[in-house]
Hints:
Layout: H1 7-13, E1 21-22, H2 23-26, E2 34-37, E3 40-47, E4 51-56, E5 67-74, E6 77-92, E7 95-102, H3 108-126, H4 129-132, H5 137-165, H6 171-202, H7 207-220, H8 229-236, H9 245-253, H10 261-271, H11 274-299, E8 305-310, H12 316-324, E9 331-337, H13 340-357, E10 361-367, H14 370-375, E11 385-390, H15 399-411, E12 413-424, H16 432-437, H17 447-452, E13 462-467, E14 473-479
Parallel strand pairs: 8-9, 8-11, 9-10, 11-12
Antiparallel strand pairs: 1-3, 2-3, 2-5, 3-4, 4-7, 5-6, 6-7, 12-14, 13-14
Helix pairs in contact: 5-6, 6-10, 11-12, 12-13
Bound molecules: S-adenosylmethionine (SAM).
Amino acid sequence: MFDPRVNGALVRSAFYRPPRKRTSDLFSADAECVFRCDGVEHPVLDLSASGFLFASPNGKIWNPGAEIEGQLIIHGEPVLDSKVRVARVQALATGSRVGVDAQQTIAVIDMLELDADRAFRAGLQAGPAAYANLLPKNYLDAVSSIKDFLLYYRPLLDREESRIRAKGDHERPLRDLVERSFETLDRRWRQLVTDASRAGWELRADPAAHHAAKRYTEATITPLLKGCPLIDRTWNKPLGYAGDYHVMEYYYRDEFEGPTAFDQIMHKLFVQNPMARGVVSRARFLVELMDAEHERLARSGTSEFAVANLGCGSGREVQIWAETTARRGPATWTLIDQEEEALAVAYQIGHKAIRGAERPAELKLLHLSFSKLLRHPEAFKFEDQNYIFSSGLFDYLRLDRAQTIAKALYDRLVPGGRLAIGNAIGPNTNFWPPEFVADWPILYRSKDDMEAMAALLPGSAEVDVVVEPGGAYYFLLVRKG
Ligand SMILES: C[S@@+](CC[C@H](N)C(=O)[O-])C[C@H]1O[C@@H](n2cnc3c(N)ncnc32)[C@H](O)[C@@H]1O
Protein backbone atom coordinates (compact mmCIF):
# COMPACT_ATOMS: atom_id res chain seq x y z
CA MET A 1 0.00 0.00 0.00
CA PHE A 2 2.92 2.39 0.73
CA ASP A 3 5.25 3.60 -1.95
CA PRO A 4 9.00 3.62 -1.13
CA ARG A 5 9.28 6.91 -3.02
CA VAL A 6 7.88 8.72 0.01
CA ASN A 7 10.48 7.28 2.34
CA GLY A 8 12.46 10.50 2.05
CA ALA A 9 9.47 12.42 3.36
CA LEU A 10 8.99 9.89 6.14
CA VAL A 11 12.62 10.15 7.21
CA ARG A 12 12.48 13.95 7.07
CA SER A 13 9.38 13.85 9.24
CA ALA A 14 11.39 11.98 11.90
CA PHE A 15 13.28 15.20 12.71
CA TYR A 16 11.21 16.84 15.38
CA ARG A 17 10.06 20.44 15.22
CA PRO A 18 7.62 21.76 17.82
CA PRO A 19 4.16 21.74 16.21
CA ARG A 20 2.55 25.08 15.43
CA LYS A 21 -0.82 25.62 17.10
CA ARG A 22 -3.45 28.18 16.16
CA THR A 23 -3.53 30.98 18.70
CA SER A 24 -7.34 30.85 18.60
CA ASP A 25 -7.12 27.26 19.86
CA LEU A 26 -4.36 27.96 22.39
CA PHE A 27 -5.57 31.11 24.09
CA SER A 28 -8.80 32.62 25.39
CA ALA A 29 -10.87 34.74 23.02
CA ASP A 30 -9.75 38.00 24.66
CA ALA A 31 -6.01 37.18 24.63
CA GLU A 32 -5.08 39.38 21.62
CA CYS A 33 -1.78 37.79 20.73
CA VAL A 34 0.08 40.18 18.40
CA PHE A 35 3.54 40.86 16.96
CA ARG A 36 4.42 44.55 17.36
CA CYS A 37 6.92 45.71 14.76
CA ASP A 38 7.65 49.27 13.54
CA GLY A 39 4.82 50.51 15.75
CA VAL A 40 2.22 48.27 14.06
CA GLU A 41 0.49 45.36 15.83
CA HIS A 42 0.04 42.29 13.62
CA PRO A 43 -2.33 39.49 14.76
CA VAL A 44 -0.43 36.27 15.45
CA LEU A 45 -2.24 33.35 13.81
CA ASP A 46 -0.21 30.39 14.96
CA LEU A 47 2.66 29.74 17.28
CA SER A 48 5.18 27.20 18.54
CA ALA A 49 8.25 27.31 20.79
CA SER A 50 10.41 28.06 17.74
CA GLY A 51 8.40 30.58 15.70
CA PHE A 52 5.06 32.03 14.71
CA LEU A 53 2.93 33.18 11.80
CA PHE A 54 1.44 36.67 11.68
CA ALA A 55 -0.90 38.55 9.36
CA SER A 56 0.37 41.67 7.65
CA PRO A 57 -1.71 44.24 5.79
CA ASN A 58 -1.28 44.75 2.05
CA GLY A 59 1.55 47.01 0.91
CA LYS A 60 4.20 45.98 3.42
CA ILE A 61 7.17 44.03 1.98
CA TRP A 62 8.70 41.20 4.00
CA ASN A 63 11.83 39.56 2.61
CA PRO A 64 12.52 35.89 3.39
CA GLY A 65 15.80 35.60 5.29
CA ALA A 66 15.58 39.15 6.68
CA GLU A 67 15.96 39.74 10.41
CA ILE A 68 13.37 41.96 12.03
CA GLU A 69 13.02 43.42 15.50
CA GLY A 70 9.75 43.25 17.33
CA GLN A 71 7.84 42.13 20.36
CA LEU A 72 5.48 39.21 20.81
CA ILE A 73 2.63 40.44 23.00
CA ILE A 74 -0.31 38.79 24.73
CA HIS A 75 -2.90 40.60 26.88
CA GLY A 76 -0.83 43.73 26.26
CA GLU A 77 2.31 42.24 27.86
CA PRO A 78 5.51 41.56 25.91
CA VAL A 79 6.58 37.90 26.23
CA LEU A 80 9.38 37.91 23.66
CA ASP A 81 11.55 40.88 22.80
CA SER A 82 14.15 39.77 20.28
CA LYS A 83 15.01 39.53 16.61
CA VAL A 84 13.13 37.06 14.47
CA ARG A 85 14.03 35.81 10.98
CA VAL A 86 11.48 35.82 8.16
CA ALA A 87 11.19 32.18 7.05
CA ARG A 88 8.35 32.40 4.51
CA VAL A 89 5.84 34.88 3.09
CA GLN A 90 2.52 33.97 1.55
CA ALA A 91 0.72 36.69 -0.39
CA LEU A 92 -3.07 36.63 -0.16
CA ALA A 93 -5.70 38.99 -1.55
CA THR A 94 -6.23 40.46 1.91
CA GLY A 95 -2.53 40.86 2.84
CA SER A 96 0.39 38.56 3.65
CA ARG A 97 0.96 35.70 6.03
CA VAL A 98 4.50 35.92 7.39
CA GLY A 99 6.15 32.94 9.09
CA VAL A 100 9.12 33.77 11.31
CA ASP A 101 11.71 31.75 13.24
CA ALA A 102 12.50 33.08 16.71
CA GLN A 103 16.11 33.39 17.86
CA GLN A 104 15.09 32.68 21.45
CA THR A 105 12.75 29.96 22.62
CA ILE A 106 9.19 31.20 22.92
CA ALA A 107 7.91 30.32 26.39
CA VAL A 108 4.50 29.06 25.24
CA ILE A 109 3.83 27.53 28.67
CA ASP A 110 4.34 30.92 30.34
CA MET A 111 2.01 32.49 27.76
CA LEU A 112 -0.65 29.91 28.57
CA GLU A 113 -0.22 30.59 32.27
CA LEU A 114 -0.50 34.36 31.76
CA ASP A 115 -3.59 33.88 29.59
CA ALA A 116 -5.28 31.57 32.12
CA ASP A 117 -4.61 34.07 34.90
CA ARG A 118 -5.98 37.00 32.88
CA ALA A 119 -9.00 35.04 31.71
CA PHE A 120 -9.81 34.10 35.30
CA ARG A 121 -9.49 37.66 36.57
CA ALA A 122 -11.58 39.02 33.68
CA GLY A 123 -14.25 36.33 34.26
CA LEU A 124 -14.38 37.13 37.96
CA GLN A 125 -14.92 40.81 37.28
CA ALA A 126 -17.37 40.38 34.43
CA GLY A 127 -19.90 37.92 35.92
CA PRO A 128 -22.65 36.32 33.82
CA ALA A 129 -24.19 39.71 33.04
CA ALA A 130 -21.25 40.56 30.76
CA TYR A 131 -22.51 37.87 28.39
CA ALA A 132 -26.21 38.01 29.15
CA ASN A 133 -26.31 41.74 28.36
CA LEU A 134 -25.28 40.97 24.79
CA LEU A 135 -28.03 38.41 24.26
CA PRO A 136 -31.57 38.86 22.96
CA LYS A 137 -34.50 38.01 25.21
CA ASN A 138 -35.59 34.97 23.19
CA TYR A 139 -32.19 33.29 23.65
CA LEU A 140 -32.07 34.11 27.37
CA ASP A 141 -35.63 32.84 27.83
CA ALA A 142 -34.85 29.60 25.99
CA VAL A 143 -31.74 28.94 28.07
CA SER A 144 -33.53 29.90 31.27
CA SER A 145 -36.28 27.33 30.55
CA ILE A 146 -33.62 24.67 29.97
CA LYS A 147 -31.85 25.59 33.21
CA ASP A 148 -35.17 25.32 35.07
CA PHE A 149 -35.76 21.91 33.47
CA LEU A 150 -32.36 20.61 34.59
CA LEU A 151 -32.48 22.14 38.06
CA TYR A 152 -35.95 20.75 38.61
CA TYR A 153 -35.48 17.21 37.31
CA ARG A 154 -31.99 16.49 38.60
CA PRO A 155 -32.84 16.54 42.34
CA LEU A 156 -36.22 14.93 41.68
CA LEU A 157 -34.59 11.98 39.92
CA ASP A 158 -31.68 11.83 42.40
CA ARG A 159 -34.16 11.53 45.29
CA GLU A 160 -36.16 8.81 43.57
CA GLU A 161 -32.98 6.93 42.66
CA SER A 162 -31.80 7.03 46.32
CA ARG A 163 -35.21 5.78 47.50
CA ILE A 164 -35.06 2.84 45.05
CA ARG A 165 -31.43 1.99 45.90
CA ALA A 166 -32.23 1.95 49.63
CA LYS A 167 -34.72 -0.86 49.04
CA GLY A 168 -32.10 -3.47 48.08
CA ASP A 169 -32.66 -5.26 44.76
CA HIS A 170 -32.74 -2.17 42.61
CA GLU A 171 -31.53 -3.07 39.11
CA ARG A 172 -34.93 -3.59 37.45
CA PRO A 173 -36.73 -0.78 39.37
CA LEU A 174 -33.96 1.65 38.41
CA ARG A 175 -34.21 0.64 34.78
CA ASP A 176 -37.99 1.21 34.99
CA LEU A 177 -37.42 4.62 36.53
CA VAL A 178 -35.06 5.64 33.75
CA GLU A 179 -37.27 4.35 30.94
CA ARG A 180 -40.51 5.80 32.33
CA SER A 181 -38.96 9.18 33.07
CA PHE A 182 -37.39 9.31 29.64
CA GLU A 183 -40.81 8.82 28.04
CA THR A 184 -42.20 11.74 30.03
CA LEU A 185 -39.28 14.10 29.43
CA ASP A 186 -38.53 13.33 25.80
CA ARG A 187 -41.08 15.59 24.11
CA ARG A 188 -40.60 18.45 26.60
CA TRP A 189 -36.83 18.37 26.09
CA ARG A 190 -37.16 18.26 22.33
CA GLN A 191 -39.29 21.40 22.33
CA LEU A 192 -36.79 23.21 24.58
CA VAL A 193 -33.93 22.29 22.25
CA THR A 194 -35.87 23.44 19.20
CA ASP A 195 -36.61 26.81 20.84
CA ALA A 196 -32.98 27.30 21.89
CA SER A 197 -31.71 26.23 18.46
CA ARG A 198 -34.02 28.68 16.67
CA ALA A 199 -32.94 31.53 18.94
CA GLY A 200 -29.28 30.47 18.63
CA TRP A 201 -29.40 30.27 14.84
CA GLU A 202 -30.38 33.94 14.64
CA LEU A 203 -27.16 34.86 16.48
CA ARG A 204 -24.89 33.42 13.84
CA ALA A 205 -24.87 36.66 11.86
CA ASP A 206 -23.48 38.53 14.90
CA PRO A 207 -20.11 37.07 16.01
CA ALA A 208 -20.04 38.99 19.33
CA ALA A 209 -23.53 37.81 20.31
CA HIS A 210 -22.79 34.27 19.14
CA HIS A 211 -19.61 34.20 21.23
CA ALA A 212 -21.50 35.59 24.24
CA ALA A 213 -24.22 32.94 23.81
CA LYS A 214 -21.62 30.18 23.81
CA ARG A 215 -19.88 31.53 26.89
CA TYR A 216 -23.14 32.11 28.73
CA THR A 217 -24.46 28.63 27.92
CA GLU A 218 -21.17 26.93 28.74
CA ALA A 219 -21.13 28.74 32.10
CA THR A 220 -24.75 28.12 33.09
CA ILE A 221 -25.84 24.87 31.39
CA THR A 222 -22.80 22.72 30.59
CA PRO A 223 -21.75 22.23 34.25
CA LEU A 224 -25.21 20.77 35.01
CA LEU A 225 -24.57 18.09 32.41
CA LYS A 226 -21.02 17.02 33.19
CA GLY A 227 -22.21 13.62 34.47
CA CYS A 228 -23.71 12.89 31.07
CA PRO A 229 -21.08 10.86 29.14
CA LEU A 230 -21.80 12.42 25.75
CA ILE A 231 -21.49 16.00 26.99
CA ASP A 232 -18.46 15.16 29.14
CA ARG A 233 -16.56 13.69 26.20
CA THR A 234 -17.47 16.32 23.62
CA TRP A 235 -16.71 19.12 26.04
CA ASN A 236 -13.38 17.70 27.30
CA LYS A 237 -12.17 16.42 23.90
CA PRO A 238 -9.67 13.81 25.10
CA LEU A 239 -8.50 13.21 21.51
CA GLY A 240 -8.25 16.95 20.82
CA TYR A 241 -11.56 17.41 18.93
CA ALA A 242 -15.22 16.93 19.76
CA GLY A 243 -16.70 14.46 17.27
CA ASP A 244 -14.38 11.53 17.83
CA TYR A 245 -15.23 7.90 17.07
CA HIS A 246 -16.16 7.33 20.71
CA VAL A 247 -18.94 9.89 20.46
CA MET A 248 -20.12 8.25 17.23
CA GLU A 249 -20.23 4.95 19.13
CA TYR A 250 -22.55 6.51 21.72
CA TYR A 251 -24.86 7.28 18.82
CA TYR A 252 -24.66 3.81 17.32
CA ARG A 253 -25.28 2.20 20.72
CA ASP A 254 -28.17 4.55 21.60
CA GLU A 255 -28.37 3.42 25.22
CA PHE A 256 -28.93 4.85 28.70
CA GLU A 257 -25.33 5.47 29.80
CA GLY A 258 -23.95 7.37 32.80
CA PRO A 259 -23.54 7.06 36.57
CA THR A 260 -26.96 8.26 37.75
CA ALA A 261 -30.53 7.95 36.48
CA PHE A 262 -30.55 11.67 35.65
CA ASP A 263 -27.26 11.40 33.70
CA GLN A 264 -28.52 8.35 31.82
CA ILE A 265 -31.73 10.08 30.80
CA MET A 266 -29.92 13.23 29.68
CA HIS A 267 -27.36 11.16 27.76
CA LYS A 268 -30.15 9.35 25.95
CA LEU A 269 -31.96 12.63 25.22
CA PHE A 270 -28.76 13.89 23.58
CA VAL A 271 -28.17 10.72 21.55
CA GLN A 272 -31.79 10.94 20.42
CA ASN A 273 -31.24 14.42 19.03
CA PRO A 274 -32.03 14.22 15.30
CA MET A 275 -28.43 15.22 14.47
CA ALA A 276 -27.19 12.22 16.46
CA ARG A 277 -29.85 9.87 15.07
CA GLY A 278 -28.85 11.17 11.65
CA VAL A 279 -25.35 9.73 12.14
CA VAL A 280 -26.91 6.28 12.27
CA SER A 281 -29.44 6.85 9.49
CA ARG A 282 -26.75 8.30 7.23
CA ALA A 283 -24.58 5.20 7.74
CA ARG A 284 -27.49 2.98 6.63
CA PHE A 285 -28.18 5.32 3.72
CA LEU A 286 -24.52 5.11 2.63
CA VAL A 287 -24.65 1.32 2.74
CA GLU A 288 -27.86 1.30 0.68
CA LEU A 289 -26.15 3.49 -1.90
CA MET A 290 -23.22 1.11 -1.93
CA ASP A 291 -25.47 -1.87 -2.38
CA ALA A 292 -27.26 -0.20 -5.30
CA GLU A 293 -23.88 0.46 -6.93
CA HIS A 294 -22.76 -3.10 -6.33
CA GLU A 295 -25.96 -4.42 -7.85
CA ARG A 296 -25.53 -2.17 -10.89
CA LEU A 297 -21.97 -3.44 -11.34
CA ALA A 298 -22.97 -7.07 -10.88
CA ARG A 299 -25.64 -6.67 -13.57
CA SER A 300 -22.94 -5.49 -15.98
CA GLY A 301 -21.02 -8.73 -15.33
CA THR A 302 -18.40 -7.66 -12.75
CA SER A 303 -19.01 -8.54 -9.15
CA GLU A 304 -15.80 -7.22 -7.51
CA PHE A 305 -16.43 -3.94 -5.78
CA ALA A 306 -13.99 -1.38 -4.33
CA VAL A 307 -15.22 1.11 -1.72
CA ALA A 308 -13.35 3.74 0.31
CA ASN A 309 -14.49 5.68 3.37
CA LEU A 310 -12.59 8.88 4.26
CA GLY A 311 -12.79 9.85 7.96
CA CYS A 312 -14.24 6.42 8.73
CA GLY A 313 -14.24 6.66 12.56
CA SER A 314 -15.37 3.27 13.84
CA GLY A 315 -16.42 2.33 10.28
CA ARG A 316 -19.83 0.95 11.27
CA GLU A 317 -20.86 0.89 7.61
CA VAL A 318 -18.78 -2.29 7.15
CA GLN A 319 -20.84 -4.05 9.78
CA ILE A 320 -24.15 -2.76 8.42
CA TRP A 321 -23.11 -3.88 4.93
CA ALA A 322 -21.97 -7.34 6.09
CA GLU A 323 -25.07 -7.97 8.15
CA THR A 324 -27.84 -6.48 6.04
CA THR A 325 -27.11 -6.46 2.31
CA ALA A 326 -27.52 -9.11 -0.37
CA ARG A 327 -24.50 -11.13 -1.53
CA ARG A 328 -23.42 -9.57 -4.78
CA GLY A 329 -19.73 -10.48 -4.86
CA PRO A 330 -16.43 -9.66 -3.16
CA ALA A 331 -15.79 -6.19 -1.78
CA THR A 332 -12.56 -4.41 -0.86
CA TRP A 333 -13.04 -1.77 1.80
CA THR A 334 -10.42 0.96 2.29
CA LEU A 335 -11.01 2.77 5.57
CA ILE A 336 -9.07 5.99 6.13
CA ASP A 337 -8.76 7.96 9.34
CA GLN A 338 -6.19 10.20 11.01
CA GLU A 339 -7.00 8.63 14.37
CA GLU A 340 -5.23 5.38 15.21
CA GLU A 341 -7.66 4.51 18.02
CA ALA A 342 -10.60 4.84 15.61
CA LEU A 343 -8.93 2.50 13.12
CA ALA A 344 -8.27 -0.08 15.84
CA VAL A 345 -11.99 -0.10 16.65
CA ALA A 346 -12.94 -0.11 12.95
CA TYR A 347 -10.64 -3.11 12.42
CA GLN A 348 -12.29 -5.10 15.18
CA ILE A 349 -15.87 -4.23 14.28
CA GLY A 350 -15.28 -4.74 10.55
CA HIS A 351 -13.43 -8.06 10.76
CA LYS A 352 -15.85 -9.51 13.27
CA ALA A 353 -18.85 -8.62 11.10
CA ILE A 354 -17.26 -9.87 7.87
CA ARG A 355 -16.24 -13.16 9.46
CA GLY A 356 -19.56 -13.55 11.27
CA ALA A 357 -21.57 -13.06 8.08
CA GLU A 358 -19.01 -15.03 5.98
CA ARG A 359 -18.77 -12.25 3.41
CA PRO A 360 -16.00 -12.32 0.82
CA ALA A 361 -14.43 -8.99 1.74
CA GLU A 362 -11.02 -7.47 2.35
CA LEU A 363 -10.47 -4.65 4.85
CA LYS A 364 -7.60 -2.21 4.24
CA LEU A 365 -6.96 0.45 6.85
CA LEU A 366 -5.04 3.64 6.13
CA HIS A 367 -3.84 5.67 9.07
CA LEU A 368 -3.45 9.07 7.52
CA SER A 369 -4.82 12.56 7.27
CA PHE A 370 -6.38 13.65 4.00
CA SER A 371 -3.77 16.41 3.82
CA LYS A 372 -1.08 13.73 3.38
CA LEU A 373 -3.26 12.18 0.74
CA LEU A 374 -3.36 15.50 -1.10
CA ARG A 375 0.40 16.02 -0.79
CA HIS A 376 1.40 12.49 -1.86
CA PRO A 377 -1.48 11.20 -3.99
CA GLU A 378 0.84 8.74 -5.75
CA ALA A 379 1.81 7.02 -2.48
CA PHE A 380 -1.56 5.66 -1.50
CA LYS A 381 -2.86 3.07 -3.88
CA PHE A 382 -6.59 3.06 -3.60
CA GLU A 383 -7.53 4.35 -7.03
CA ASP A 384 -10.21 2.77 -9.26
CA GLN A 385 -12.86 2.85 -6.59
CA ASN A 386 -16.46 2.09 -7.48
CA TYR A 387 -17.72 4.11 -4.56
CA ILE A 388 -16.14 6.61 -2.18
CA PHE A 389 -17.94 8.23 0.71
CA SER A 390 -17.24 10.54 3.60
CA SER A 391 -19.53 11.52 6.45
CA GLY A 392 -18.84 13.71 9.47
CA LEU A 393 -15.65 15.19 8.02
CA PHE A 394 -16.54 17.86 5.46
CA ASP A 395 -18.60 19.66 8.17
CA TYR A 396 -15.24 20.85 9.51
CA LEU A 397 -13.76 22.02 6.19
CA ARG A 398 -13.75 25.46 4.61
CA LEU A 399 -15.17 25.56 1.11
CA ASP A 400 -11.84 25.70 -0.77
CA ARG A 401 -10.51 22.73 1.20
CA ALA A 402 -13.75 20.80 0.71
CA GLN A 403 -13.63 21.44 -3.03
CA THR A 404 -10.02 20.25 -3.31
CA ILE A 405 -10.72 17.05 -1.42
CA ALA A 406 -13.93 16.38 -3.35
CA LYS A 407 -11.88 16.62 -6.55
CA ALA A 408 -9.11 14.35 -5.19
CA LEU A 409 -11.71 11.73 -4.25
CA TYR A 410 -13.47 12.06 -7.59
CA ASP A 411 -10.16 11.37 -9.36
CA ARG A 412 -9.95 8.03 -7.54
CA LEU A 413 -13.24 6.76 -8.94
CA VAL A 414 -13.59 4.47 -11.95
CA PRO A 415 -15.67 6.01 -14.79
CA GLY A 416 -19.29 5.66 -13.72
CA GLY A 417 -18.24 5.38 -10.05
CA ARG A 418 -20.05 7.23 -7.29
CA LEU A 419 -18.97 9.76 -4.68
CA ALA A 420 -21.09 10.65 -1.61
CA ILE A 421 -20.13 13.49 0.74
CA GLY A 422 -22.21 14.32 3.80
CA ASN A 423 -22.64 17.56 5.71
CA ALA A 424 -24.99 18.78 8.45
CA ILE A 425 -27.96 20.75 7.14
CA GLY A 426 -28.33 24.45 7.78
CA PRO A 427 -30.44 26.25 8.95
CA ASN A 428 -30.75 23.76 11.77
CA THR A 429 -33.33 23.48 14.55
CA ASN A 430 -31.41 20.87 16.56
CA PHE A 431 -27.92 22.34 16.70
CA TRP A 432 -28.08 23.99 20.14
CA PRO A 433 -26.59 21.03 22.12
CA PRO A 434 -23.42 20.57 20.06
CA GLU A 435 -22.89 24.24 19.21
CA PHE A 436 -23.66 25.93 22.53
CA VAL A 437 -23.51 23.26 25.26
CA ALA A 438 -20.71 20.98 24.11
CA ASP A 439 -18.40 23.43 22.28
CA TRP A 440 -18.62 21.43 19.08
CA PRO A 441 -18.88 23.96 16.28
CA ILE A 442 -19.20 22.66 12.73
CA LEU A 443 -20.17 24.18 9.39
CA TYR A 444 -23.88 23.82 8.64
CA ARG A 445 -24.45 23.96 4.90
CA SER A 446 -27.37 24.83 2.64
CA LYS A 447 -28.16 22.97 -0.58
CA ASP A 448 -26.35 25.68 -2.56
CA ASP A 449 -23.32 25.33 -0.29
CA MET A 450 -23.31 21.59 -1.00
CA GLU A 451 -23.44 22.17 -4.74
CA ALA A 452 -20.55 24.62 -4.42
CA MET A 453 -18.38 21.78 -3.09
CA ALA A 454 -18.49 20.24 -6.56
CA ALA A 455 -17.11 23.37 -8.28
CA LEU A 456 -13.75 21.79 -9.22
CA LEU A 457 -15.30 18.69 -10.76
CA PRO A 458 -15.36 18.40 -14.57
CA GLY A 459 -18.54 19.27 -16.49
CA SER A 460 -19.07 15.57 -17.24
CA ALA A 461 -19.71 14.84 -13.54
CA GLU A 462 -23.39 14.33 -12.67
CA VAL A 463 -24.06 16.20 -9.44
CA ASP A 464 -27.04 15.95 -7.14
CA VAL A 465 -27.78 16.92 -3.53
CA VAL A 466 -30.13 14.79 -1.43
CA VAL A 467 -31.19 14.60 2.22
CA GLU A 468 -30.54 11.33 4.04
CA PRO A 469 -33.63 9.63 5.55
CA GLY A 470 -32.97 11.03 9.05
CA GLY A 471 -33.38 14.56 7.64
CA ALA A 472 -30.22 15.82 9.40
CA TYR A 473 -27.51 15.61 6.71
CA TYR A 474 -27.24 16.60 3.08
CA PHE A 475 -25.31 14.36 0.73
CA LEU A 476 -23.55 15.60 -2.34
CA LEU A 477 -23.87 12.70 -4.77
CA VAL A 478 -21.64 12.61 -7.80
CA ARG A 479 -21.51 10.14 -10.65
CA LYS A 480 -18.20 10.20 -12.53
CA GLY A 481 -18.77 10.95 -16.21
C1 LIG B 1 -17.38 12.93 13.23
S1 LIG B 1 -16.33 11.56 12.96
C2 LIG B 1 -17.26 10.64 11.75
C3 LIG B 1 -16.86 9.20 11.69
C4 LIG B 1 -17.67 8.33 10.75
N1 LIG B 1 -17.63 8.78 9.40
C5 LIG B 1 -19.11 8.24 11.24
O1 LIG B 1 -19.98 8.85 10.64
O2 LIG B 1 -19.33 7.55 12.25
C6 LIG B 1 -15.04 12.29 11.97
C7 LIG B 1 -13.86 11.36 11.72
O3 LIG B 1 -12.98 12.02 10.81
C8 LIG B 1 -11.66 11.78 11.21
N2 LIG B 1 -10.81 12.86 10.67
C9 LIG B 1 -10.77 14.14 11.09
N3 LIG B 1 -9.86 14.83 10.37
C10 LIG B 1 -9.32 13.95 9.48
C11 LIG B 1 -8.32 14.06 8.50
N4 LIG B 1 -7.68 15.21 8.30
N5 LIG B 1 -8.02 12.98 7.74
C12 LIG B 1 -8.66 11.79 7.96
N6 LIG B 1 -9.61 11.63 8.91
C13 LIG B 1 -9.94 12.68 9.66
C14 LIG B 1 -11.72 11.78 12.73
O4 LIG B 1 -10.61 11.11 13.29
C15 LIG B 1 -13.04 11.07 12.98
O5 LIG B 1 -12.88 9.68 13.15
